[in-house]
Specification:
alpha/beta; Rossmann fold; 5 strands; 38% helix; binds 4'-phosphopantetheine
């Protein structure tokens, strides 16, 4: 049987991208032929970076990886997934806190588009407590975010977030 290109979408707010996201993106890349990292609007959150800025931070972070595209979308995730012909949505799952929300999203997305599977990758132990909001808090207090964000984008993130507190 002819091999069909397997495309996965890794969606998220990425406000900003962290090493936890990078771990999930790298591991998705091992499992699929092509990975699209997608900045999607989360109606429940007020972002610090514009979608375009978030896309640029992700592009700079994945520039040494192959088979990865970065895009943004202002709509229902499943519509994008269908349009690009992806077979899976990949998400990282941390401890128990993410489970209920992610489980709900996976069921809703399956209901909206039954050809898509949601694949959960267990977040690595060292990233269990890492989140974009933790990074934002540390940066706003002038703390060291080197352990938490990709080196390529550290200065850009610090430049912006280090100044938010007066
Ligand atoms: O990084 P996040 O904030 O946990 O990602 C959540 C995100 C952006 C993937 C989710 O909010 C989303 O898919 N938003 C797009 C709108 C949509 O399709 N919602 C699902 C049906 S309610």
């Amino acid at each position: 049987m002819k091999h069909r290109e397997r495309i996965a979408v890794v969606p998220g707010s990425f406000d900003p991208i962290t090493k936890g996201h990078m771990d999930i993106i790298r591991r998705a890349q091992e499992l699929f032929d092509k990975v699209i990292v997608l900045v999607v609007i989360n109606a429940m959150k007020t972002p610090s970076f514009s979608p375009q800025e978030r896309v640029e931070l992700i592009r700079a972070s994945v520039n040494d990886l192959e088979g990865i595209e970065v895009d943004s979308y202002d709509g229902l995730l499943v519509n994008y997934v269908r349009d690009v012909g992806a077979c899976a949505i990949v998400k990282g799952l941390r401890a128990v806190t993410d489970f209920e929300y992610e489980f709900q999203m996976a069921l809703i997305n399956k209901e909206l588009y039954d050809k898509v599977e949601t694949v959960f990758l267990t977040t690595s132990v060292e990233n269990q407590y890492l989140s974009s909001s933790v990074v934002k808090q540390i940066a706003s207090f002038g703390g060291n975010i080197h352990p938490f964000v990709p080196e390529q984008v550290h200065d850009k993130i610090m430049e912006r977030l280090g100044k938010t507190r007066r």
